[in-house]
Amino acid sequence: MANYSPQHFEPRAKTVNVKGVANRAVATVLTAGLIAQPLISPLATIAAPSTGNGDSVQGGGSSVENTVATGNQAVVKTAAQLAEESAKQLKDAQAAYDAAQKKADAAGQSQKQAQQQKNQASQAVTDNAAEQNEAEAAALQEKIDELKAAVDKAEQQQKKLGDLNDQLDQANKSVEDKTQALKDAKAKQDEAKKALDDAQAKLEAMGMDEYEAAKKAVEDAQAKLNAANADVKTAEGELDAAKTAADNAEQAKSDAESALTTARAKKQETANALAAATTACGNAQDKLNDAQKALDAAISGTGIDLKALEAAKKAAAGELKGAQTELDAAKAADATAQTNLQAAQTDASAAQEKVNAANAAVSSAQTAYDEANGKLGDLTSKYNTAKAAYEQAQQTEADKKTEYDRLAEVAKQKKSALENATSDYNKANDEYNTASANVKALEQQISELKANMTVDTDAVKAGLLGFMNHIASSTSFTAAQRANASDAAKLLDGSASKAAWYDDYVNLDASDADNAFSLVNLQNTLTYMNAVNGIRRANGLSDMKVSIVSMAQSALDVCYSSNVWDHAGNSGEGFYMSYNENLAGRAGAYKGSDNPKDWEISFDNGDKYGDDWPFIGWYTAEKRDYDRGDYSNTGHYENFIDSGANSFGFAVGYGKDGNRSTPEDDGAPSPVSIYQGNWAEGDFTVDEFKNLVNTYVDSVYHAGGTAAQKAQLQDQLAAARKARDVKNDALGSAESSLDAAKSAANEANGNVAAAKSDYEAAQEATAIAKAAYGAADVNLKNVDIETPRANLNAAKDEATVAQAALDDANSKLTECQTNASKASARKAKAQGDYDTAKTKSDKANEAYDNATASVKDLAAKRDAAQADLANKQGSLDDAKKADDTAQAGVDKAQAADTHAATALSDAKQAVAAKKQALSDAQAKAKAAEGELATANKAFERFAGAQKAVDDAKATYDATVAGVADAQKQLEAANGAVVDANFEIVKAKAELANDEALKADLEAVDHKASLAAGTTGNEKLVKLNAAYARYKAAVDAAAGLKAALSDADAKLSDANDAYAAALAELGDAKDALAAAQVEYDKHHPKAEPQAKPQVAQAAAKAPVAKKQAAPAALAQTGDNSALAGEVFVIGGITLVAAGVTLSDRRRKQM
């Protein structure tokens, strides 16, 4: 239906005779203002000429006492009566005005509500129209969607059923294969058992006694070698232990020698102490002897040569004096030398400290200089880096700006291209829709023609040959297509290039669905074709077309290869291959993926013979070999990726059982698949060929009408479909172009955004790099390298001076050390000479003193000498004990050293012994190896036989496992048959339901369902709801339109009422103003001269208000305006409501 467009309804204009209303108001006011008696003369005296500004001019008398008309009798009221009446009139006028105001307010509110109701009603009608459109479209779309889903589901279920039948066939075939495999496995087991028995018999035939002896010799030699190797290992361990013990003994000997050295040093100390004590004791004994001699001589009166003693005394004293003089001189020289040495040492130390300080200063200055220099280098590097970064950032920014500008221009171009592509797509879509409508019309005619649903059995029997003849005879195909179809038909019927095996294996009766020529298998070939081109696309090659001749040749070669498992090209009896050919064991429809990547996954998962077969074998497995460089078995793969191939053919099924008595043909034919590549350009695209085959097969199984009608419609349909396909291709191309343009525009916009972001980032990076460059420049300029360099040079100079001073000080120190050494030696010699002279002098003095001393003194000296001797003897005894103890320590250490030496010698001997033991063990192991080699050599003649037994045993075990595995696989295959049958039953039931739903949907009359609001089929719940929605909207439309009409009428009435109320309110205002004027006249105020001005103001007030009155009316009324007019009658001033029309508009007050 046409889109409903709601009309815009304007409120009905109702003209209000405002002038009439005003005149009635004037009459009312005049009547109320005069005596209600017919005494008024003609209104010739109501002269109120208008001034230029619209004000009235009074005429006649100016007093209430004046008569109305000269010469006529009039009733004149008193001032009190007039005042009372004017007050009453004013009160009535006020009441009338209040009532009119309420009425106008109520009318305005009613008008506003009516307008809102009208707006709501209008919107409801508009919404309802939109709802009808949307509901109708939704219902139609729901039907289309549900029907499409039902068709798709039915097709999927049909395909699933076909797949399940194939699976059942495969399962049954698998049971046969697994049964045969189990038989084969058992046969292999029997063969393996026989081989094992034979090998065992051969071994036994060689002489079991000799075999056992040789075997035992090998075992004994091996045991001996094992023992010898164990001894070697033990000897190696014992040698390692002996070496460790020798190392420990070596350390113990070293420790003993160290202890002995220490003990001997201690002994030397005690020996020295003993010698000193012995000397001291001897000297004390000499003194005692001398003292005793002197005492004895004094007691006995023995003569002594005093002169000689005195002379000796003087001589010793002289020697002592000379020695003292030399000693004093030597001490003085030594003191001087020591003083000089200390001074020199002090100077040297001070110089060393200065050198140390100077060197430290140099080191510090060097460190400071190195740090400054390093900082300079670092900052220079940073400066150079920052400079380069800044320059690079500037360049990058310029590049990004250039790129941004370029991409912006590209985006502009892409936008223009997108607009052009959109226009082209819309045009192509319109043309495609037109072509599709034509195809649908022809399909509908053919559908009506197929009402009888009969099968063309002759066409079924003709199969592929009939299909080729159909193409060859139809004018809807090109001359080249018809010629190729004719050639193909001649190959198929054997009238051209007939192979020698043709009659044995080719059956032209294609009624059997398994025949390679059958229409069933022709349709099955279609399922393989997308996978072929999937391979081409995966390898960057263009899609191949279908060659009619190659289709025929493939089918013919299937007839041969299904009987003889080989290519017909190898038969030597003729073949039908044009270019190349792939052969595999499979028939039926292909159910695998068209994407080679999916085959990779199946291959890796071990699913090599599933749905993706045969392509997983032809392509995936061989591609892996090819990629590894193994080209020995990659012919199938290379046929697919051959860039020289432009078209192909495909065939599946069986040939006729030729029953040839040849080794190659030894049983019933088996199902095969054949792909053939061709250099020729091809006749149809895959999609065109699929459509052609399906249309032809459909016409065969749904034949109806006359052959001429059918042929004519089919030709027209083929032409229409071809035209539609052309338009579809154009639409696809336009859509691709549009998608590409959208993608390009989006990509260009994205690129512009990214480029802009990059450019802005580059600008920011440039600013950052510039700041970093400036900072690096400032930092570099702030580095002070000269000050550290000057400080370093100054420190080095000071260090040189300090080093020279140190050298001088050290030279002086050496000289002073030499002098001090000499002085010390002189002092030591002088001290020794002095001590000798002193001893000599003391002895001489003592001898002289003893000679001249009394017996009593001598006795005392003797006693003192005796006591001194006793003391010295005690010291000597202590020294002897210490020396004895030290000697004991030496003896103990000597013994320990001797023991350690013995232990070390023993350990070294043990190491030597263990080395020998290891050498002996290794020699034995080598000898055992020789014995084992000899035994093995003697056993060699039995080894082959034993290996044969072992290998036969392994093979037999494997065949036992193979039988068990084959049994499991057979059980699994039987289970698969059961499962397949069950799934087929389920699939048939589901297909029946899907077909029923499809029929229900196809039976729905869209127009009738729209009118009824339901399909009448309770099962179509969602579709019924969609139609009910539309029906509800349609049903609601009449009421909504009626409500709108009613609301419009009510609005019009409300507008009229509101206008009338406003007019009445204006009249009431005028009457109130007139009454107020009259009242004011009869109720004078303090300043009477102002009354006319008050009256004039009273006359103006309602005019200002009434100016807005027309705007308050909703879409109705005219341009008339109310104005106050002043009438003076007989000296009485009255205000009446007047009308100023557009053609006589007055200046409003």
Major sheet, described briefly?
4 strands, mixed
Structural class: mainly alpha
Distance between the termini: 59 Å
Mean pLDDT across every amino acid position: 81
**Uncertain segments:** 1-74, 1087-1149
**SSE arrangement, N to C:** HHHHHHHHEHEHHHEEHHHHHHHHEE
**Beta strand %:** under 5%
Rg calculated over all Cα atoms: 71 Å
The total of beta strands comes to 6
Molecular shape: flat
> Strand order, biggest sheet?
1-3-4-2
Tally of helical segments: 20
What percent of residues adopt helix (DSSP H or I)? Answer: over 70%
Walk me through this protein's architecture.
By secondary structure, the chain is mainly alpha-helical. It is 76% helix and 3% strand. The chain has helices at residues 18-33, 79-205, 208-300, 306-449, 457-473, 479-492, 502-505, 519-538, 548-561, 596-604, 615-627, 635-640, 686-701, 707-781, 786-852, 855-1002, 1006-1012, 1021-1082, 1091-1106, 1109-1112; strands spanning 545-546, 580-584, 647-653, 672-678, 1121-1129, 1132-1140. The protein has a four-stranded mixed beta sheet with strand order 1-3-4-2. It has a two-stranded antiparallel sheet with strand order 5-6. The two termini are 59 Å apart.
